[in-house]
Amino acid sequence: MANEHGAQVLQMDDERLIRDGEAAVDLYNKDLKNARARIMPMARGLCAAKRKYPATQDFGDWLTTSSYREIENDDRAALIKLGEHDDFATKFMRTTNLISPQTIWDAIKDLMSTSYDTKSTPVSTIPPETSPATAPAGENENQPAENNDPINPKSPAGRKSMLSALPRGDELAKMFVSKKPRALIGRICEGRKGKPILDLIHRALDAGLITPTTAEFNTPSLYLLFPLAPLSYARRFDLTNAKQREDVTENILPAMIACRDKLLMTPEDMLNILNTYMAEQQANRREEEAKNKRNEAIASLPTDQCQIIMYGTTLWPRMDNRQGEYDYDQVRAAVWTFRDLDNWNRQISGDNGVGSRGIRIRLSTKWYSEYLIRNNERGNPVRRIMTLIHYITRLMEAGPEAECKWPPYPTAEAEW
Hints:
Elements: H1 2-30, H2 39-52, H3 56-63, H4 73-84, H5 86-93, H6 101-111, H7 169-175, H8 179-188, H9 194-207, H10 231-234, H11 242-258, H12 260-265, H13 270-299, E1 308-310, E2 313-316, H14 328-349, H15 354-374, H16 381-398
Antiparallel strand pairs: 1-2
């Protein structure tokens, strides 16, 4: 009877865990800002479901009716692993900003020493909850002023280490808790390449990209600048390679600093975050270069010419050859013709739809081009005017409210 009662209690606990887990899944998908808080309830609920439905077929049938079906297969597998190592994972979650179950499980696997039984919890590898800002300075006033490492109390920063001789070595020792990264930094900085690499590390440290980590690594990758970086991306860069280090110095690290908050919140999305940022920066640079080029061209215009903008696009001075070669008189004639036809169309039809107006203008001028083509007048300058009129109608349709700067009509207009 006692065993039966215990089984019933366990079954009730599993049911509760499953319900809590499914609720966490719904919140995880809807509230990305607080997604990390849902990881462990999701993991416990999925583990409880595996206990309740140990057979693969039964578990699969249950999954089709559960919120967990919205989670990717790899993430579900990672959640089950996290649930199996509940204590370890719970403590680890207090030390990380990761929100991807796969990335979290990968990080935990790296922390788990192979000498441990994976079903046990090697608590010594998990940082305590005490933060650097709140770590006690000492038990009493007579205690030596020892700068304790709040991440690993057994490794006081005052102790001799491979980082002690480096500038800001104590700060680095607090961030890189494990021996391998400490030894790596110490070894690199002994060589001639050490100063530029250490400068990069200091820049990342000042920017807040380096957070306390217990990760073990011994390659001079991007981990030295951002310990939360995804493994596949971090290993693309070898900081001892002069060309790759230059790329990191000039491009990657500045982008990481600019995107720091996003990276800390979702480090597993690092590649997409940096690519998006750098694409935006490149677009801004192109726009700035085009603006400078346009301003220089406008400043060099003859006194009898002016800038012409049609629906947000500069037609004069000519900035590119997308519409072929044309001169100031041709584009003026095209703009004047377009403007008159557009005004007359609106007055006659009363239709302000840009699509209809554009079609009418193109239809009313198409026979001129046909005449010129049939009479072997393809190179006739009037044909370029027709082409520009049609181009302006497309600009109007694409941005009817965009900026326009019209060329003034000839003063002799009243004599026509």
